[in-house]
Records
---
Amino acid sequence: MSINWFDQPLVDQRWQIMTAKGPVTAVSGFIDKHAHTAEDNARVVPSNELFLDVGARNNEDAQAMGIAPGNFVAPWSPFTRLGTNRFAAKAWDDRVGCILMLEALRRMRERGIKPPNSLYFVGSVQEELGMRGAQNAVEAVKPDVGIALEVGIATDYPLGRKEFSQEEFRRWSSHLCV
């Protein structure tokens, strides 16, 4: 299975392995810098050459922690405050969509709004893997109309280019369509 991540930032990251005994923290690793060849230094390490270090001395230690083939692994990226009114965490695009849906439901209840039609609020998964979750939701609900909630691309960072934000890119690219 492919993942929709760049290989470049995967080395030296923290991860959680989801086991039957609970999450186990791991760090992704590669051959130590001191043992690198000149060729190793000049390339991006592909994900299939990484390992996850959980502090186990052997296979029995890893099994005692609950680690087994097929365990899910997720990046460990706790919510963090950056400066003033800026935040970092994983999966912002999905989390913001969930917050918007919950806020819409809260406001509807608060204002006593009862729509004449059926509304379905769906939080789906695996958009990076071919929209699998959304596709399943559409097949189950069969909506007349669907509204996707997704955040845009940040461009307010060093070397970020405003024209590649989704809003600007749509304006710019619409001139290219024939």
Note: The chain is about 25% helix and 15% strand.
---
Amino acid sequence: MKETKPQPCPNIALVHGDAKPGNFAFVGDEVSAVFDWEMTDVGDPLTDIGWMELLWMQPVGITSHEAAPSVDEFIDRYEALSGIKTQNRRWYRAMNAYKMAVICLIGAMLFYEGASDDMKLWSPPAAPTS
């Protein structure tokens, strides 16, 4: 992945780190509040686009809502409103898939060590292979 890393977006922005509909409050079509700031950073705004696009690919979630735009409609609107051209989308999705895997592994570890009782972190143990 390091060998294929694109040049960062020339625009530097506040990057939320967990941008998804559940972390925004709306009044009509306008965002009225933003929640869940613990992964926020200043940097390449395309990292948030990669995260959103990865979430769009999940079977249940953003795309399961009848009013959800397609990912291409979302990207078109983002580009129109931000003036930022999305590029290297596959790379940003891959980077965020790695981030998601790390988050899931840490969550599972916290659950199994008893540091969390959040059932969304639980997964059944793998069946023995022999």
Note: The beta strands are 13-15, 24-27, 30-34, 41-43.
---
Amino acid sequence: MQSNGPLDILPLWGLFVAILLVVLLSIEGGFRLGKYRRSQSEQEQEAPVGAMVGATLGLLAFFLAFTFGMAAERFEVRKKVVLDEANAIGTTYLRAGMIPERREEIRALLRDYVDARLNAVQSGNVAEGIRRSENILDQLWVHAVVVGTQNPNSIVVGLFVQSLNEVIDLHTKRVTAGVRNRIPGAIWVALFAVGIVALATMGYHGGLAGTRRSFAVLPVAFAFSAVIVLIADLDRPLEGALKVSQQALIDVRQTMNVP
């Protein structure tokens, strides 16, 4: 059920290695081209090339900041939706205790619903978790229709139906934010294209200046690769070290235990 991104074919550690190699090859290729151009009779001036290097590196920094901001924003949205869903479920569970009919059946379904949400994240079987969650929501709505039809003028029933409707809306919002809203492939392509050009231009300037290869290239390559992997980690809801905590749902589930 998770929308696959263009970088999902590689694990995060494999992505780090691949990016590191691409960065080093880009710099080395630019360095050799610059060294070749220096050996020609018509030599380029270093000053204009240095200005172009600064411009391309600035553009790369802009793309990195833009992409990181996009991934971080999606991560924050996923955290907020989990909290909103936990609050909505807790409110619905409390209001279910005040409706005149089917309160125990509805509360049991709400407990199953939270279990399904937590199991989907913990097991990684998102498609099955979403299918089970939607099935439980359908059953809850059937009960809500029956209770609402039998008590059309009840304020308590109206409040219960309102909170249940919010739970249903948040289910769709969480699925969209959690597994489908990824960084577009075009952004990744543009980022890598600008990165390769900028780093190759940096290496070209070094070769044109006639300097030796510097070990400073390695920290640059590691730093760039680390930032890209961090962005990819933020963009993968179910993988990596940066995962949205489900503690809010766990806390709600503990309050729903049958005494």
Note: The mean pLDDT is 85.
---
Amino acid sequence: MARHRSPRQIAILLFPGVQSLDVTGPLEVFHGASQLTEARASGERGYEVCTFSGDGAPLRTSSGLTITPDGA
């Protein structure tokens, strides 16, 4: 019987002027790893990725992209 585990929690810290690639790159990698992990019959749940900033307010990256974090 497969044991269902909670997903590993990953936090990405955002700050004004962050490079968008430094946010989206890791987010995409953990999302892909989570899909592969969950596709196996091992009962593991992969990764849960959340973004945070100091005050939880939307902020602009160095290229002008506005990102709204999940929380503060």
Note: The beta strands are 8-13, 47-52, 59-60, 66-67.
